[in-house]
Every structure is written in structure tokens, then in C-alpha cells.
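Exam revision sheet. Question 4 asks you to relate a sequence to its structure. Input first:
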Amino acid sequence: MKFSSFGMTINSHEIINVITQHGTPVFHTSEMHIKPFLCRKSVCNLADIIALFKKSERFYIVGIEIKEWDARVHSKLAADYLETYRRTCEYFYLAAKHFSKKTLGLKEIGLIDLTHMEVIKNPDYLFPDPGFRANMMKRIKKQFNIPPGIVDDPYQRTLLEFKHQ
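Answer key, C-alpha cells:
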């Protein structure tokens, strides 16, 4: 299965469907700006996939970068992408056909095997910057009519969250 066509991400739903750790997928989009500003020092400015998952009453922003080439994805590249996504996203996945052994051992990064379409390594929580995450959440709510009850700050809780604990 292909995941890009003329520089645009396609079939993103297939990748979203293999991620189950963060609850139910609420929304996902392709080619969305990761940061609230253009950053030439970052390895990328557009996320291949930004997804919003709901688990209990909590919403999580998940970033996914796709590399569908046949060569292994090495740890340096994986770490560069992690640094780009970490300020905005609560979880980050790298999806590829092959990973180097060192990449498999990296902490914090989730890995998706595109050959078998499965998560082979779950990510750690990234503790995003509240301002960056809030900016992303505001853009998602404004552009895609996502329910207004979702809090912008990753550390803010809702009354419903406490009710379900």
C-alpha cells in the first residue's frame, strides 16, 4: 500500500487504524503545520499525519511521520523527527518498512511497521509545550469543527475526567 502521492500523504486512515494505545480516533488530517511558526531549523514543518485520540475523557494529539522507502530508517533521522514533533504532540510515531537496531532502541518514539501494518513499539508520553499544543488544538478546532469541550492545555483536566477516575 502506498502512503504518498505527489508529496501528499494518502491512506492515512490505514495507519490510524493500527494505533490503539491512545483510545478512539476522533480526527486525523495530513500535511498540517506542526509548529505555530515556520522553523527552517526543523527537519520538517508539515506533519505527515496529525491525529486526535480520545481515551476516557482525555484527548491526545499524536504525530506520525511516514518513510516508505526500502532503506532502513536510522536513529539520527528518527531523533530529528522526534525533536520536531515533541513540542506539539503528546505521542510520536515513525512509520516505515525497516528500522535500524539503534532506532528500535530509541526511547519515546513509537514505531509502526508498514510491511505488516502493526505497531512494533509503543511511544512514551512526550510532555509537550503547553503553548505549542494549545496552538495546535485551537487550529484543529477552528479548521475542522472538532467539539469545543476539548481543552487546549495538555495539563488541564475536565470535571468529566475526575468523574471517571
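Marking note for examiners. The mean pLDDT is 89.
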